[in-house]
Known about the structure:
The protein has 669 residues and is an alpha+beta fold. 35% of the residues lie in helices and 18% in strands.
Amino acid sequence: MLxxxxxxxxxxxIGAGLLACSLATLSACSKNEDVSGQKPxxxxxxxxxxxxxxxxxxxxxxQKNEGAMAAKAAxxxxxxxxxxxxxxxxxxxxxxxxxxxxxxxxxxxxxxxxDIKRLTPKNPELxxxxxxxxxTAVRAGIGDSLEEVKFSLGKKDPHxxxxxxxxxxxxxxxxAIQYQTAPGAxxxxxxxxxxxxxxxxxxxxxxxxxxxxxxxxxxxxxxxVRMTYExxxxxxxxxxxxxxxxxxxxxxxxGVFEFEMPQAIPSYLIAIGIGNLDFKPxxxxxxxxxxxxxxxAAAKEFEDTEDMLEVTEENFGPYRWDRYDLLILPPSxxxxxxxxxxxxxxxxxxxxxxxSLVALIAHELAHSWSGNxxxxxxxxxxxxxxxxxxxxxxxxxxxxxxxxxxxMEMALGYDDLQADLADRPDKDExxxxxxxxxxxxxxxxxxxxxxxxLFLYELEQKVGRExxxxxxxxxxxxxxFQSITTEDFVAYLKKTLLQQYPDKLxxxxxxxxxxxxxxxxxxxxPTSDAFTKLDPIRKQWLxxxxxxxxIDTKDWTFHQWKYFLDGMPExxxxxQLKELDSTFSLTQSKNNEIAFSWLMIxxxxxxxxxxxxxxxxxxxxxxxxxxxxxxxxxxxNGQEETAKRIFEKAKPGYHPLTVKVNSKIIYGD
Length: 669
């Protein structure tokens, strides 16, 4: 995923550094300790049946003891502390889904059939993850011979949801669950027609990462479990359904759509989109789904996707997902993109008209190797997804757009990382982060993305690019379609690069990168000549030595605009603000990244000519990359009432995740 986190007031944090295309989303908001007493991962001991039908009761009774020890003992490798599922007893191998989208009541209703593999000769309860799901009936048995069985819902946890406990007949290998979602399901957003580009039809999309699949499917919602799936999605006849599966752009709009995902994927990659969607191919294996009003612009903006796919295959191994298509979502989508296999979900805010923001497409495509093919086993290990993907993103941009673009992307990422390091506690600067007792959405920051990428860049620099590329291709083949831990990666590194280059790499430094806060001394510092030449220009203008109209910006890229603006001091005079705005029309910029940088400056300096644009920006876009820092900036600069008024106005159109994170900024925990 290309989520979002910008640190406000970056100018005072890193001087002339840059707050640019951040690769993070929801910063740490909660400092709770342990969430659940049970160990919800495959290392959890097999459960034993008890008379009251709660096989995890003993573990739950130890919750307080485990919570007290959490600060002393490191997280156990391979344990997913964010799932109730008893994956040592059973694993789901296949999902068969049949859901009807009820737009009037804003619910998904139907049945999920789970094919399970037994891992114990005993017959404990099957425990699944749910969140605000209304389960009406459960059947279980062998093959197609299913009978109604008893089930119960456990205690609700504020982060994890509610465990669904199912009594299974002996030998049962299939479970069918009838249910419906809640209108406010955390992983589903229902949009009214006026919230779409066409203004005529409603829209639905899901967002399952990190643990929101459980809000629309009862299942083992952990990245350790990979499953294939089939689905039938029933919609109003005017609309088209698409999924992270094999989509047919020629499918008749008859209200029934069939899907199959033959490759095994973790639950967070199951995705549904429903709307007034058309399709346009961009290459042999690539195309774009979008509302008709956005289709041509999106296809033109992202026309290089096929080239990206081909060059990534050439350098890092085959693309194993058949097709790679894009779904352009309405502006309320809370992230930049989501790497749902075969069909990445993309924000329309990156359709800039000049391909300046297509690094996001490269990022989601790169996940087809790092993240979807090889997956973090728990959210502690997210850097294995996002660090590798960020590294690959930069390489793809170099392959397709050249060295200068590559250097700028690298430099921007480094500045983003520095900003996060200046704004986060030490415990959250560790790549293998301890998330026990916390909402896993809090893992998303520039640490797993940019620190992870910088670590890999150092490995590349030390062993040489050709050798490192060979390592990456072997790594992707070795762990293909597996979920791995940080310790799995370190063990593999010891057997490969550390053995091959003992004079260039050492284990202690690798452990420092992964398990310690900050950046190791002597780490690479990516720079760009395209940026450094802007520093004296900015300084001359700030000193009054030149006018804004004297600055030649006709060949500037978006990256240079971001660098120039985000390097401004915290305070500018009213005259300076007016000069910049009148010369470069910044308040009315159509590039959302440039507009964001300018609005951050405007809020800090209470520049009233930008107030209307600020309100329009905050109410028309749902991307947390922009919203979170702007709301925080308003709150920190004496504009609390403005922040509250705009947020309440915009809230009905925001995604539930957007509401959650920004409510904390405006109203506190």
